[in-house]
Protein backbone atom coordinates (compact mmCIF):
# COMPACT_ATOMS: atom_id res chain seq x y z
CA UNK A 1 0.00 0.00 0.00
CA UNK A 2 1.44 3.35 -1.03
CA UNK A 3 0.37 6.60 0.65
CA UNK A 4 0.13 9.57 -1.72
CA UNK A 5 -0.50 13.05 -0.30
CA UNK A 6 -3.93 14.45 -1.24
CA UNK A 7 -4.97 11.14 -2.84
CA UNK A 8 -4.98 8.72 0.06
CA UNK A 9 -3.75 5.20 -0.44
CA UNK A 10 -2.98 3.62 -3.79
CA UNK A 11 -3.48 -0.13 -3.75
CA UNK A 12 -2.41 -2.35 -6.61
CA UNK A 13 -4.68 -5.33 -7.30
CA UNK A 14 -1.66 -7.64 -7.33
CA UNK A 15 -0.87 -6.72 -3.71
CA UNK A 16 -4.31 -7.87 -2.59
CA UNK A 17 -4.07 -11.05 -4.67
CA UNK A 18 -0.85 -11.90 -2.81
CA UNK A 19 -2.95 -12.23 0.36
CA UNK A 20 -4.61 -15.27 -1.21
CA UNK A 21 -7.92 -16.77 -0.14
CA UNK A 22 -11.10 -14.73 -0.48
CA UNK A 23 -9.18 -11.47 -0.88
CA UNK A 24 -7.61 -12.67 -4.12
CA UNK A 25 -10.87 -13.70 -5.79
CA UNK A 26 -12.61 -10.32 -5.50
CA UNK A 27 -10.03 -7.73 -4.40
CA UNK A 28 -12.65 -4.97 -4.32
CA UNK A 29 -14.48 -6.88 -1.57
CA UNK A 30 -11.34 -6.77 0.55
CA UNK A 31 -11.12 -2.99 0.09
CA UNK A 32 -14.82 -2.42 0.90
CA UNK A 33 -14.56 -4.55 4.03
CA UNK A 34 -11.30 -2.88 5.12
CA UNK A 35 -12.65 0.67 4.81
CA UNK A 36 -16.03 0.05 6.41
CA UNK A 37 -14.72 -2.18 9.20
CA UNK A 38 -11.96 0.30 10.06
CA UNK A 39 -14.60 2.99 10.64
CA UNK A 40 -17.09 0.73 12.46
CA UNK A 41 -19.63 0.81 9.62
CA UNK A 42 -19.96 -2.87 8.72
CA UNK A 43 -22.97 -3.99 10.75
CA UNK A 44 -25.97 -2.63 8.79
CA UNK A 45 -25.24 -1.87 5.14
CA UNK A 46 -27.58 -0.53 2.44
CA UNK A 47 -26.26 -1.05 -1.10
CA UNK A 48 -28.37 0.83 -3.68
CA UNK A 49 -26.55 -0.46 -6.78
CA UNK A 50 -26.14 -4.06 -5.71
CA UNK A 51 -25.45 -5.87 -8.96
CA UNK A 52 -23.95 -9.26 -8.16
CA UNK A 53 -22.88 -8.49 -4.58
CA UNK A 54 -19.16 -8.97 -5.14
CA UNK A 55 -18.30 -6.22 -2.61
CA UNK A 56 -19.38 -8.55 0.20
CA UNK A 57 -17.57 -11.73 -0.87
CA UNK A 58 -14.62 -11.25 1.51
CA UNK A 59 -16.97 -10.89 4.49
CA UNK A 60 -20.71 -10.33 4.52
CA UNK A 61 -22.02 -7.56 6.81
CA UNK A 62 -24.18 -8.61 9.77
CA UNK A 63 -27.25 -7.23 7.95
CA UNK A 64 -27.23 -6.39 4.24
CA UNK A 65 -30.06 -4.71 2.36
CA UNK A 66 -29.62 -4.54 -1.39
CA UNK A 67 -31.48 -2.67 -4.08
CA UNK A 68 -31.15 -2.84 -7.84
CA UNK A 69 -33.63 -2.60 -10.71
CA UNK A 70 -32.57 -6.08 -11.89
CA UNK A 71 -31.76 -9.32 -10.13
CA UNK A 72 -28.30 -10.45 -11.23
CA UNK A 73 -26.69 -13.81 -10.60
CA UNK A 74 -25.62 -13.10 -7.02
CA UNK A 75 -22.23 -13.92 -5.60
CA UNK A 76 -23.49 -12.95 -2.13
CA UNK A 77 -27.19 -13.16 -1.33
CA UNK A 78 -28.44 -10.11 0.62
CA UNK A 79 -30.67 -10.40 3.69
CA UNK A 80 -33.30 -8.23 1.97
CA UNK A 81 -33.46 -7.42 -1.73
CA UNK A 82 -35.59 -4.57 -3.07
CA UNK A 83 -36.02 -4.57 -6.88
CA UNK A 84 -36.03 -0.78 -7.35
CA UNK A 85 -33.67 2.02 -8.42
CA UNK A 86 -32.30 4.29 -5.68
CA UNK A 87 -34.89 7.04 -6.23
CA UNK A 88 -37.78 4.64 -5.51
CA UNK A 89 -36.48 3.27 -2.19
CA UNK A 90 -37.48 5.91 0.37
CA UNK A 91 -41.12 4.84 0.95
CA UNK A 92 -40.18 1.16 1.20
CA UNK A 93 -37.29 1.72 3.62
CA UNK A 94 -39.30 4.13 5.79
CA UNK A 95 -42.07 1.53 6.11
CA UNK A 96 -39.74 -1.21 7.33
CA UNK A 97 -38.01 1.21 9.75
CA UNK A 98 -34.42 0.01 9.44
CA UNK A 99 -31.34 2.03 10.32
CA UNK A 100 -28.06 1.78 8.43
CA UNK A 101 -24.42 2.50 9.21
CA UNK A 102 -23.57 3.29 5.60
CA UNK A 103 -25.05 3.53 2.12
CA UNK A 104 -22.97 2.01 -0.69
CA UNK A 105 -23.10 3.21 -4.30
CA UNK A 106 -21.27 1.71 -7.28
CA UNK A 107 -22.90 3.31 -10.34
CA UNK A 108 -22.26 2.12 -13.88
CA UNK A 109 -19.60 4.37 -15.36
CA UNK A 110 -19.82 5.43 -18.97
CA UNK A 111 -16.72 6.34 -20.91
CA UNK A 112 -15.91 6.45 -24.59
CA UNK A 113 -14.89 3.07 -25.98
CA UNK A 114 -16.03 1.23 -22.84
CA UNK A 115 -18.38 -1.71 -23.08
CA UNK A 116 -20.24 -3.29 -20.18
CA UNK A 117 -21.64 -6.18 -22.24
CA UNK A 118 -24.71 -7.37 -20.28
CA UNK A 119 -25.14 -4.07 -18.42
CA UNK A 120 -25.51 -1.78 -21.48
CA UNK A 121 -29.31 -1.65 -21.72
CA UNK A 122 -29.61 -1.76 -17.94
CA UNK A 123 -27.31 1.24 -17.54
CA UNK A 124 -29.21 3.28 -20.09
CA UNK A 125 -32.49 2.47 -18.32
CA UNK A 126 -31.42 3.54 -14.83
CA UNK A 127 -29.66 6.79 -15.69
CA UNK A 128 -26.24 8.35 -15.53
CA UNK A 129 -23.68 7.84 -12.78
CA UNK A 130 -24.18 11.47 -11.70
CA UNK A 131 -27.93 10.99 -11.32
CA UNK A 132 -27.47 7.78 -9.31
CA UNK A 133 -24.86 9.39 -7.00
CA UNK A 134 -27.02 12.47 -6.41
CA UNK A 135 -30.06 10.31 -5.64
CA UNK A 136 -27.97 8.17 -3.27
CA UNK A 137 -26.90 11.26 -1.32
CA UNK A 138 -30.50 12.49 -1.25
CA UNK A 139 -31.73 9.11 0.07
CA UNK A 140 -28.97 9.02 2.70
CA UNK A 141 -30.05 12.45 3.96
CA UNK A 142 -33.72 11.43 4.00
CA UNK A 143 -32.98 8.27 6.00
CA UNK A 144 -30.41 9.86 8.33
CA UNK A 145 -27.47 7.80 7.03
CA UNK A 146 -24.26 9.71 7.82
CA UNK A 147 -21.78 7.85 5.60
CA UNK A 148 -21.61 6.87 1.93
CA UNK A 149 -19.06 4.54 0.35
CA UNK A 150 -18.72 5.40 -3.32
CA UNK A 151 -16.85 3.43 -5.96
CA UNK A 152 -16.24 5.93 -8.74
CA UNK A 153 -13.47 7.14 -11.02
CA UNK A 154 -13.14 10.57 -9.38
CA UNK A 155 -13.76 12.33 -6.10
CA UNK A 156 -16.90 14.37 -5.52
CA UNK A 157 -16.60 18.14 -5.22
CA UNK A 158 -17.61 19.76 -1.94
CA UNK A 159 -17.88 16.47 -0.08
CA UNK A 160 -16.24 15.48 3.20
CA UNK A 161 -13.79 12.63 2.55
CA UNK A 162 -13.28 10.31 5.52
CA UNK A 163 -11.00 7.90 3.64
CA UNK A 164 -10.02 7.42 0.02
CA UNK A 165 -8.32 4.45 -1.57
CA UNK A 166 -7.26 4.57 -5.19
CA UNK A 167 -7.45 1.01 -6.50
CA UNK A 168 -5.25 0.18 -9.47
CA UNK A 169 -6.59 -2.69 -11.57
CA UNK A 170 -3.58 -4.78 -12.54
CA UNK A 171 -3.77 -8.52 -13.03
CA UNK A 172 -2.73 -11.18 -15.50
CA UNK A 173 -6.24 -11.45 -16.91
CA UNK A 174 -6.84 -7.68 -17.38
CA UNK A 175 -5.74 -5.46 -20.22
CA UNK A 176 -4.92 -2.23 -18.40
CA UNK A 177 -1.67 -0.86 -19.89
CA UNK A 178 -2.35 2.71 -18.69
CA UNK A 179 -2.81 1.44 -15.09
CA UNK A 180 -6.33 2.84 -14.70
CA UNK A 181 -7.55 3.22 -11.17
CA UNK A 182 -10.83 4.00 -9.43
CA UNK A 183 -11.63 5.50 -6.06
CA UNK A 184 -13.21 3.69 -3.16
CA UNK A 185 -14.14 6.72 -1.07
CA UNK A 186 -15.90 6.93 2.25
CA UNK A 187 -17.73 10.24 2.60
CA UNK A 188 -19.46 11.85 5.55
CA UNK A 189 -22.77 13.08 4.20
CA UNK A 190 -23.50 16.54 5.52
CA UNK A 191 -27.12 17.48 6.08
**CATH topology grouping:** Rossmann fold
> What's the CATH architecture name?
3-Layer(aba) Sandwich
* Side-by-side strand order of the widest sheet: 1-2-8-9-7-6-3-4-5
Secondary-structure content class: alpha/beta
Percent of residues in beta strands: 15-25%
Mean pLDDT: 83
Rg, Cα atoms, Å: 16 Å
Tell me the domain tally.
1
* Fraction in helix: 25-40%
Q: For this structure, what is the CATH class?
A: Alpha Beta
What is the terminal-to-terminal distance?
33 Å
Descriptive report:
The protein is an alpha/beta fold. It has a single domain (2-188), classed as Vaccinia Virus protein VP39 (Rossmann fold). The chain is built from six helices and nine strands. The chain has helices at residues 13-17, 21-25, 27-38, 90-96, 120-126, 129-143; strands at residues 2-4, 8-12, 44-47, 63-67, 80-82, 102-105, 147-152, 160-168, 181-188. Strands 1-2-8-9-7-6-3-4-5 form a nine-stranded mixed beta sheet, sandwiched between helices. Strand 1 (2-4) and strand 2 (8-12) form a beta hairpin. It is globular and about 45 Å long. The protein starts with a strand and ends with a strand. Residues 1-7 and 112-117 have low confidence and may be disordered.
What is the topological layout?
Blueprint: E1 2-4, E2 8-12, H1 13-17, H2 21-25, H3 27-38, E3 44-47, E4 63-67, E5 80-82, H4 90-96, E6 102-105, H5 120-126, H6 129-143, E7 147-152, E8 160-168, E9 181-188
